[in-house]
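Exercise: predict the structure of this protein bound to iron/sulfur cluster.
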Amino acid sequence: MSAVVKDWDAFQILAPPLDGARPLKSLRRGQAVSAGEKLALDPRPGHGDLHAPASGLIEEINELEIVIRRDEEAVGRPPEALDLGRLPPGDLAAAVKGLGLDLPPQPAGTPLIVNTLKAEPGLDLAPALFGERRETLAAGLEAAARLWPAAKIIWAVARAGEAPAESDFRLIRAAYPHGLPALVKKKITGQSDPRGLGVRGGRELYLLGRIWRTGRPLTAMPLTLGGANYFVPLGARVADLLSFANLVPGPDDLIVLNGLVRGRTLGRLNRGLGLSAAALHLVRNGGRPGPAAPCRHCGQCGRACPVSLPVEALAAEEPREWLKEAGPRLAGCLLCGLCALVCPAGRPLMDMIRLKAG
Ligand code: SF4
Ligand code: SF4
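Solution:
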């Protein structure tokens, strides 16, 4: 995995878009903050609190973002490291959320599945983290064992040698979409919808390990950027990241956040990235599909669907019918994008599915 991005101080840093988080009431424009200082609380499940990625001055604060101008001399309230090892599981989960990472609870009696596979083309971090950051991942597993002491660990791996010696593992095909969490769960449990069962990926365990080792808030994250892996400050702006990687978008290019199949395109480059961003790609004009043609009723979309949904029948329907009928018939859709990938007519199947199944 590539080195940390070092020369970040030339860039303006934004805190992640707030989008449900609540800035601390005491924050004021012009205020000095220290690296790691808490900026906002996020009460939503799956979201941790937000912290300053670097020391600086608050340049802007509004309902969408907190903008910090880096200033190494600025001193606010530097966070103290927490001794996480002393906390019982319930307090540990709350402390980890307070440090920036909220993990879904592990239902009693269910195995903890560690997914080492690449979930999707363009999401390249898992093999790099499992290969090169084993110590931090081991710390993440140690923390997971403290959080969910009764859970048995099962490794999902593409090759037997990728699981630790004497561990319980299952072999999963490396090809997309078999690494998607829903399909990994199905393969391991045999159930199509094992509710509540968690699959922890390498990135999640790495971030947990980082918190466990340091007792400090998350201020940086691993990110695949233009095909290489980096550590970047939380809240780094998309425009600055592209510039760092010498990626210059042309008027017809797409900026894709996360995977190349299931990711979404970004319209605004003047925005910071939060913890949910795992990859950023520049897709040249060649990646843009041509205008959609009418459905040819070839059936390829239905045959490609890994969970056998009637996507072909739905794709052929008129938009009005689609809007009326598609929701229940798409229950269980993985949003894997295979149907859209194989469609020779370039039908906007993912857009249609997201509208109803999203
Ligand atoms: S995105 Fe398409 S191929 Fe994938 S599960 Fe949904 S309907 Fe099936
Ligand atoms: S693959 Fe495309 S053209 Fe073929 S049936 Fe599905 S939507 Fe129609």
